[in-house]
Amino acid sequence: MARPGMERWRDRLALVTGASVGIGAAVARALVQQGLKVVGCARTVGNIEELAAECKSAGYPGTLIPYRCDLSNEEDILSMFSAIRSQHGGVDICINNAGLGRPDSLLSGSTSGWKEMLNVNVLALSICTREAYQSMKERKVDDGHIININSMSGHRVVPQSVTHFYSATKYAVTALTEGLRQELREAQTHIRATPLSRPSLLAQCISPGFVETQFAFRLHDKEPEKAAATYEQIKCLQPEDVTEAVIYVLSTPPHVQIGDIQMRPTEQVT
Ligand SMILES: NC(=O)c1ccc[n+]([C@@H]2O[C@H](COP(=O)([O-])OP(=O)(O)OC[C@H]3O[C@@H](n4cnc5c(N)ncnc54)[C@H](OP(=O)(O)O)[C@@H]3O)[C@@H](O)[C@H]2O)c1
């Protein structure tokens, strides 16, 4: 059954990036459960196909459409938006979730690790945002949402060298979300004959602390015991906790704009 406030999204299209595992997979599942058409993208498309079959056999009212996309490649992203346009019309909600950390410190890290983080965490998020906005604009969608999955690392720098560059990319997400909020306000005030007192396309972000996913295993891919310890030291957030925040953001009435939801495990110190 649709949650109160979610009825308006039934049969509308949400793009969820990084839907193959972790937070993105949980968000995609929850949106299909709420009756949305969800395009879930990632490189490991087989996982999304399995999730789509699972959603179908559970009888959820929406559908999950798997799409293989390497977000570090702009052409892949543009082809995906073009396929969404020709097959489904366009995007009403864009959830920029895909992201990663590499253990490359500022003093001795590899440039390739920094580039990978920049490409996915910052550039892909910005390209998807631009394309989603253009899609909403051309179809005159006046209630679209762009939700960035940020991080507590986008708000404070913890004294752990392996997270410093990652943290810089997430500070960028904080700035990009606020910049987008301002540009949307400006653009919509100018597009309409009657200036709006409030923008109707919204930019928002959710900033979790530790969430138990593949994230730490990918960050510490050469030291899996370190990754396991990350999730064993405290009771972490689960992907479903972040999903609840996404559903909350989407179910608020149009006069409400959430800026950022910061959420940590209760036991997290930093
Ligand atoms: N876990 C945490 O503690 C935590 C805390 C705060 C914020 N976050 C943020 O939450 C978001 C999701 O992370 P998660 O914890 O769910 O991590 P995860 O389990 O490692 O999942 C990351 C997702 O991003 C996708 N991805 C990575 N590189 C990609 C690329 N080049 N092209 C397409 N997709 C790509 C992965 O898909 P493929 O590998 O299949 O392509 C995967 O679906 C990230 O933005 C992360 O920064 C996580």
From TrEMBL:
GO molecular function, one example? 3-beta-hydroxysteroid 3-dehydrogenase (NADP+) activity
Instruction: Cite the entry's keywords alphabetically.
Output: Oxidoreductase
The pathway to which it is assigned is:
Steroid biosynthesis; estrogen biosynthesis
Pfam families (UniProt xref):
adh_short
Return the InterPro entries for the record.
NAD(P)-bd_dom_sf, Sc_DH/Rdtase_CS, SDR_fam
User: Gene3D superfamilies under this entry?
Assistant: NAD(P)-binding Rossmann-like Domain (3.40.50.720)
Q: Which PROSITE patterns match?
A: ADH_SHORT (PS00061)
Q: Which domain of life is it from?
A: Eukaryota
Query: Catalyses which reaction?
Result: 17beta-estradiol + NADP(+) = estrone + NADPH + H(+); 17beta-estradiol + NAD(+) = estrone + NADH + H(+); a 3beta-hydroxysteroid + NADP(+) = a 3-oxosteroid + NADPH + H(+)
Enzyme Commission numbers on file: 1.1.1.270, 1.1.1.62
The family note in this entry says: Belongs to the short-chain dehydrogenases/reductases (SDR) family.
Task: Tell me the function of this protein.
Answer: Catalyzes the conversion of the 17-keto group of estrone, 4- and 5-androstenes and 5-alpha-androstanes into their 17-beta-hydroxyl metabolites and the conversion of the 3-keto group of 3-, 3,17- and 3,20- diketosteroids into their 3-hydroxyl metabolites. Exhibits reductive 3-beta-hydroxysteroid dehydrogenase activity toward 5-beta-androstanes, 5-beta-pregnanes, 4-pregnenes and bile acids. May also reduce endogenous and exogenous alpha-dicarbonyl compounds and xenobiotic alicyclic ketones.
Indicate what this protein is called per its UniProt record.
Answer: Dehydrogenase/reductase SDR family member 11
Please tell me the species this chain comes from.
Sapajus apella (Brown-capped capuchin)
Chain's gene name:
DHRS11
